Amino acid sequence: MAGQLIGLLLLGIAAAHLIAILIEGEGILPQAREYSLVRIAAAYRAVEACAPDETPALLAALESSDAVYRLLPAPPELRPMSAADAELAAELATFAGLPPAAAIHVYVQADTEAYLPGSPRYGLLEARLRLSDGRWLHASLRPRLRSQWWLKFSVPVSVLPVLPLVLLFAWRILRPTRALAEAAERISRGERIDPLPVTGPVELREATAAFNTMHQRLTRFVADRTAMLAAIGHDFRTPLTALRLQVELLEDEAVRAPMRRIIDDMRDMIDETLRFARDDSVREPTQEADLAELVAHVGSRCLELGQAVSWAVPGPVPYRCRPLALGRALANLVDNAVRYGGTARIRLDAPPAGDSLLITVDDDGPGIPEDWLERVFEPFARPAPARDMDTGGIGLGLAIARSCIAAHGGEIHLANRREGGLTATIALPA
């Protein structure tokens, strides 16, 4: 927007200059024009009043550095006059006291000599008037022309001092806009931010105030939902604990074991549901982390648990994120790959600047049906028979992973591998 404001300003200045040029135009300065015509008219009247033998001395006395006078005994070769020249000829006739139809020819030529930039510009004004005895008076003067003020004055004075001021005010005006855009980007990545200062023009202050109100309401909504779910979880745990105690009092192990397993499954479902709804990634502060180290940490932790996991990472990849949330999302993908495919291979790719960072997790399992590639990200969604219920889990791992990745402004996709197995791809904004 700053570039557009500056461009608009320069366009307005250029348009103002163009209008001024069209109004003022080119040609002889008004003062120099009248002075030159008066001098020619005075010379004409002096020659008319002078005796023929005194005329050469008179013309020599009238000459100067910018005016030359001479007599032509024969009619000179006359070329057609332009409209501007004819106007000058009419004015000269008035000054000389001659009728408009008198034999007067005037020609003006600009830029007859080279001149230095910034120096005065002169033209050549030639006038030929027929005397009463048939001779012609030829006058050649060098009046001053209109200067190109838009080059010597207007551009340096009106444009150059204005540009720094425009840049300063554009920066001050657009700074709240940039802050608003950055805050919206940070919120979209799941970060917590402080309310923005309400500054700038009226429109920007209104937009900033509305943004702060929206952010406050969203934060309050998430907090209220989390508190409600925590209360529900607490209320569920109390009867489950009592039920577990009742089950432990049963003497028949054949009856007690399946009931204990059902209660454990219900407790796990409640815990995972609360964790998913609470979205712990929002509470974690954003910080600079090394993605390569994060991938290696997740892989080594899974390896310590006896899982068949391998990883390949380039050198250090600094990235601003919430490491715990991102590690949790990656761990869920690795856990799914090991659970359903037996192995997990993690690869981190850091493409050239501007492209997305890619983390892929491959397994050697049976894959999933094509129509389930998106549905598996829904809470509690589990395809069958490709993903057997006996493998464990409640169907929240991928939903939690997508929530964490989306909070970072990224995306996650699943695709069946041609050679068998499944590939999970995390794309994070660079």
TrEMBL record:
EC number, UniProt record: 2.7.13.3
Coiled-coil stretches noted in the UniProt entry, renumbered to this chain: none
Reactions the enzyme catalyzes: ATP + protein L-histidine = ADP + protein N-phospho-L-histidine
Transmembrane regions: 6-23, 149-171
Main location: membrane
GO CC term (a single one): plasma membrane
CDD domains: HAMP, HisKA
Domain HAMP, residue spans: 171-223
An example molecular function term from Gene Ontology annotations: ATP binding
Enzyme class of the recorded protein, top EC level: transferase
UniProt KW Signal keyword: no
One Pfam family cited in the UniProt record for this chain: HisKA
Residue stretches making up the Histidine kinase domain: 231-430
Protein localization: Cell inner membrane
Keyword terms: ATP-binding, Cell inner membrane, Cell membrane, Kinase, Membrane, Nucleotide-binding, Phosphoprotein, Transferase, Transmembrane, Transmembrane helix, Two-component regulatory system
PANTHER family, per database record: SENSOR HISTIDINE KINASE ENVZ (PTHR44936:SF5), SENSOR PROTEIN CREC (PTHR44936)
Designated name of the protein: histidine kinase
